[in-house]
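Worked Example 4.2. Consider the chain below.
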Amino acid sequence: MKSKRYKKLPEKTNLEKPDTINNLISIVKKNCTTKFDESIDLNILINNKQKKSEVNIRTSVNLPSGTGKKIKVAVVAEENKQKDSKDAGADLVGADDLIDKIKNGELKFEKLICTTTMMLKLSKLGKILGPKGLMPNPKLGTVTDDVATAVKSAKAGQIELKNDKDGNIGLSFGKKSFSDDNLIKNFNTILDSLEKEKTNITIKGDLIKSIFITSTMGVSYKVKIGKSI
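Applying the procedure from the previous section yields the following C-alpha cells:
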C-alpha cells in the first residue's frame, strides 16, 4: 500500500522525455519529502549483450564530493602495516586473528582491504565474503600493499561500478543535502569512469543505453545521457 506521502509525488515520471542532470537534480530534491537525508541514486543500463561475449564492468571510482555515507573499513595486513591502516582511519585491523573472526561469521564492516601476502589466506573465505560482495579485488584497489591510501579512498567516497547480468549498475552518488554542483561533479566523474572502461572492451554501439535518477523514497526520471557542463 502506498503511503500518503508517496501518493503526493508526481506519477509516471519515468515515461517523460529525458532531461539534463542539471534540471533533474533540483526536481528530485523537491521530491525528497521524508525527514531523513535521502540518498540520490542512479540506475545505469549498459549495452552488455554483445554477439561474442557479455560486457562486465567492475571498477572503482573516487567521487570528488564523497558519498555522504560513513562506512566501516576493515584491513587484513601484516603487523608492520597495521599502524598505517589505523592512522588512515581503518575501523578494524588485524591479521590471522581478523581472518578467524571473518571465518566465524563476524562481518562488522562494509569494505575489506588486504595486502597481497594476506590475500593468499583470505582467498579461502570466498564462500563467506563473495556472496556479500566483500572479497578484496586488485582491480578495485582493495588488494594492495599501500593500505593507507586504500583506506583513505574508501573513507573519502570511493564507490564500486559493477553491472548485474542484465546490464544494470545501481549506485548512490550523494545526498539531498549536497549542493547541486557537488552532485553534478560526482555524476560527471562516474560518466568519465565508464567512458574509460569503454576503451578497454570491445563493444558495438554506445556503452550506456539509459540512465535514471531517483532518491531513496522518491520517483525516477530519465536522464539525458551526457556530461553536464
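The mean pLDDT is 90. The helical segments are 4-7, 21-30, 79-88, 96-103, 116-122, 126-129, 147-156, 180-198. Compare this with Example 4.1 before moving on.
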